[in-house]
What does this fold into?
Amino acid sequence: MRTLLDPKTIALIGATAREGAIGRTILENLRRSSDRTIIPVNPKHSSVLGLKTRPSIGAVHEHVDLAVVATPAATVPEVLEECAKAGVHGAIVISAGFGETGKTGQALENKVRKILAKYPMRVIGPNCLGIIRPSVGLNASFLTVQPEPGNVALISQSGALGTGMLDWAIGSHVGFSLFASVGAMVDVDFADLVDFLGSDPHTRSILIYMESVGDARRFMSAARSFARSKPIIVMKPGRYSESAQAALSHTGSMAGGDEVYEAAFKRVGIVRVREVSELFRAAEVLDSHRLPLGPDVAIVTNAGGLGVMATDALIEMGGRLADLSEASMAALDEALPPYWSHGNPIDVLGDAPSERFEAAVGACLKDTGVKGILLIYTPQGNARPDEMAARVSALVKTARKPVVTVLMGGESVEKGRSIFQAAGVPCYDAPEHAVRTYLSMYRYARNLELLYETPGEQPIDVAPPKNNLRALLRRVVDSGRKVLSEEESKRFITTYGIPVTRQTLTNDLEDALKLGERLGYPLVLKIVSPDITHKSAVGGVETGVCSPEDLTRAYPRLLERVAKAAPKAHVHGVSVQRMIRQVDYELILGMKKDWQFGSVIVFGAGGVGAEGLADFAVGLPPLNQTLARRMMEETRIFRAMTSPPSGVEPPDLSELEEIATVLSNIVVDFPEIAEIDINPLVVAGGHACAVDARIIIDEDVMAGAPKYPHLVITPYPTRYVMPWKLSDGTDVLLRPIRPEDEPMERDMLASMSEETLKGRFFENVGEISHEMLVRFTNIDYDREMAIVAEVTKGRKKRLIGVGRLQCEAERQHAEFAVVVHDDYQGRGLGFKLTDVLIGIAQDKGLTQIDGYVLSDNRRMLQVVEELGFEVEPGDSGVSTVRLRLV
It folds into this structure.
């Protein structure tokens, strides 16, 4: 990718001198690129625009880093194969006429994919505009605009929209580190470019216009790696679907593609925006150190009407008006005239001089209940915009709280805008733009907080034996069904520990009456049929059966309704179960498969009308209790449960978190499941219980030909959990690290000697921050691995060593590092951890692992030499060690 995006020698295949031709525009742009050799390829001309041409790429004797292809679509597969055989590192295919044109174009695209599968060459496109890197003086596109260098990277899947966005940004004086039009993404996709830009020193924020994610797993991994250090802002259209496919479960019909994208973006720290202008506004502010800690905003204005408009926008977009403290009210009473608004929004009145704005903002900065400030100024009264901006800018210079401003007007407020912008204070021309920016900042901060949050302690593997459950799924498929009965579904989930209501199947009224006597009233009756998915839809449920007389009437009535509504259904009988007398809340908890993001989990308000309530949130497994809680917090029903009405016992929210986490474990363990529907999951007396459940089997997975991915986030790799003994016989558990290990990781590092820490980090570590520990413990198991050594003394667990493996973006090489606590050195642990890392590197298909060891660390150098590493001493006192795996 580095060579593709910063080539020294470029061949243009399809170069021409013809006016208005794409090949000419690209050549003119390439000629303006600095310090690069440009080779036109055209079999019909000896030169183009004064440059000597070659008849084919095979006739180019120089080594070519990049080929830009602008020939008819039908020729592209052959051209790319010639490039690959000639050793070209990468290509950009400008040509259109592929998958976007129909079957013929799709066949050409498939040919290209087959060729690329045979060679290591990387390709951007086809059907793209090309790339521009102002930061390194490269324009390999057919665009006629030339953006200024800057620190914003823009990746667009749409050529037309990309051009418009670029033009808009240039007009707004936004500079770029990269503009990339990716087209059909037959090879290079968003994940590749995010990986590159994450390490690019010229890039501070990454903007993406996305129509489809491409390889969702790789994109999630790349975004998660860099979202902490560089904001990633995505504009993704397609929020609304004109039609919904029929689904077998409530869960399946609720969570559409857009909700899944939203959940995926949140999971990895991405901010999603709705408009082009918002995309660039977000880029301006999201790398700020002043990110809000909450949605609670104080509005300061000299125009009451605009304060009301801003409040409407704030509430509509999900923010809140901050409650001003008594101290703030007292300070404002002292600084403002007696007839100020006495509340939030803070109306400093139309005649306000600059000092009033300064005093109001100052009071809000001191108020801990105010998380951010929106200042709205209109040119009236005694406040000059430049003076007001200077005073407020000086005030917020050292503040950690974000201040967003609106200066309404034209030329008269330009000086004020310039002062705010020079001070790094966002300034806009309309309240709704400022509100949207503030809430983008808050969502970004919230997403980062989610990445940094440490979950509570959980057992490493709480899953029960799975073979009996797999056998159940196989029996269902062999019987010609793909939907488990309610009884089978409940048996499945209760094996994992999800509480369920018990039920008994009966085939006649007499038996039902005996059950009623044994179970006690009231009862619920449900039809049992493999042909009926939604029992309530055919009248197949009777509730509130309070006596034998009720049961005598309800039993035949239920059968008659079902026979009328579903005459062809094969009825196995009626299930009888005890009715929960007082249901406080009805929830839905389920799972479905998305064609791009694999298995997703849904939580929300349940019951028969779950879809109509449209109160649900989506999460991506695997979930821990923190992630489960954050998913549930997005729903209205969960917020209602946190403040139950008088007389209702507060729900055990930690129990709900645990149930959602258990469902996530089921999802992780069983790719054979297409959908799970627990609806309703009722909360009564403070505790949750599954009243109804349905599991739908993924027949494609059972047949060995899955259509959809299973998980896009790699779950905890239990296969690397292993018991071991130190050379003195001490029992040690070797296992992959978990986010829950943060406290033990902190204790281990804090109790190591300076010499040991220097041997690992090559410098003084200083303060061990929460953010540093999160990076160490909350890892992406797909691209890195950390194996910890854990010992247990009594009830206390302790980490005594860790080995880390960090893969490079293209998954060929990895860097490793090992550290062992001083108290446990010299007992074989460093050797064992390194040996385990070698095995993991081989599992991942890596070709080489490298590491760095202080030259005076004889013990570690001896370990790597015994394991077959090559050792290259360095001049700086650090030796490079390398092990080739293939």
Q: What stands out?
A: Residues 241-254 have pLDDT under 50 and may be disordered. DSSP finds 30 helices and 38 strands in the chain. The two ends are 22 Å apart (CA to CA). The longest strand covers residues 673-684.
